[in-house]
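Thread: Modeling a multi-component assembly for a lab meeting

Hi all, long-time lurker, first post. My supervisor asked me to bring a structural picture of a complex we are working on to next week's group meeting, and I have zero experience with this. I have the sequence lines for every component (487 residues in total). Could someone generate the structure of the whole assembly? Inputs are pasted exactly as I received them:
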Amino acid sequence: MNAPAGLDFAGIPERIQSEVQRAIQRSIKGVEYFSTSGPMLGSTPKDVLHSRGTMSLYHYRPMSDEIYRIPILIVMATTNRGYILDLVPGQSFIEFLLKRGYDVYMLDWSAPRPEEKSLRMEDYVLDFIPDCIRRVQQDSGEQDVSVIGYCFGGVLSLLYGSIHRDGPMKNLICFTTPIDFREMKLFSNFSDRRYFDVDRLVDSVGNVPPEMILSSFEMLRPASRTVSQIQLWENIWNDEFVKSYRMLDRWATDTLPLAGEYFRTITKDLMWDNKLFNDTMSVGGRAAKLEDIKVPFLHAVAEHDHIVPYEAAKHLIAKIGSEDKEEVMLKGGHVSLVAGANAVKRLWPKLDSWLGKRST
Amino acid sequence: MTDKSNDPIAVWQKMVGEMEKGFNSFANQAMSSPEFSQAVNRAGGVAAGAQKQLGELMEKYLVSMNLPSRDQVTGLAERLQSIEGQIGEIKSMLSQMAASSGISQGPDTALRPPRTKRPPSEGGEQA
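Re: Modeling a multi-component assembly
Sure thing. I ran the full set together rather than chain by chain. Output:
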């Protein structure tokens, strides 16, 4: 009987030996995995500059002898925690920025309290962000502020920038920011206005529970959680793999609830009526048109983003009114674009080279 | 170096990867249908309704036990939040007053590096 084509029988004993060693390592490391906590995340030294309900404003302590004149305010997505941008030393976007001489502030969110269910889009765009900008100006002594928005933090930054046309935002950077919500096909289908009664949901539960947000993200790739656990078991002998898995898994499952009224507006104005894309969006009665954003603008998108597909983000660059604008597409997914080993090599240096010369 | 096409473990890993892609793609197709949306939202609506009813029942129970109702606790929380907001405003006003009268606001401000950095291409510096 002939050997099946392509199989290398000579290499099999060596491979078996290596697999036995890995199996032993898996047993040892598997016990370690369940008996230890993961790496400490978000540990770059910072001060809480201001905290009000769901909103917190941090200032990270500078790590450079000389810093750029213009400070940066990072606006985090309201569904997730900001420590994705500050994982561990060497894999922290915040640490990278500090070492490159930027003065960094972050607008981060905690779970809205039950009584905050009435927070509206207006509270985020016309109160929280302007309040943080004022405090950054006050703390830094500078009038100009660069804004970086990640995912839905990008949407909030766009709304803020399009309404506050006369500054003080000096530069705007968005990471994976959707504007054409029809193109977020599965989210669009989940919230189909014929079947999804958002009023009933919000009136019943108040704040939208994090489990619901998490399951809607997980439903985009339903097999991936199981497969990632298989991959974890296969690679549990590999400390680097396990560290990275624990960091990203902890963050991904640490989803925040959304304030009810805010969720109602997102569903009706963005998911159903696609108002940001159609130039009909308004917040608190003030028109928010992307063409009114005139500051230097950078949009970084990920080639394999399953949460914000390129189709949902691609029109942003054309609709922005700035003359100085650029879109950059990088390899990676929604999270690996901004965090992890690939971001260190791709997005971060690109951002530094773009922003450095606009920060003096 | 082992040829990955001959390595049974690599073949298994590739197969798992392909299965993941295939299943995700199949599920995405199924979830794109209006029927799926209808079914999911019907189930979600029932759960939300049940949750509301349970909440109302619990509130009645707490009242009968002479415990504060949810509305009362929420009212207290709102008052606390308003106090927090006012403290924040007072803090902010004090900082502004301190800044305008030249009073140092702690060691942190004094120790901040100068805002004189230029990008590497302008200053010839390599980060």
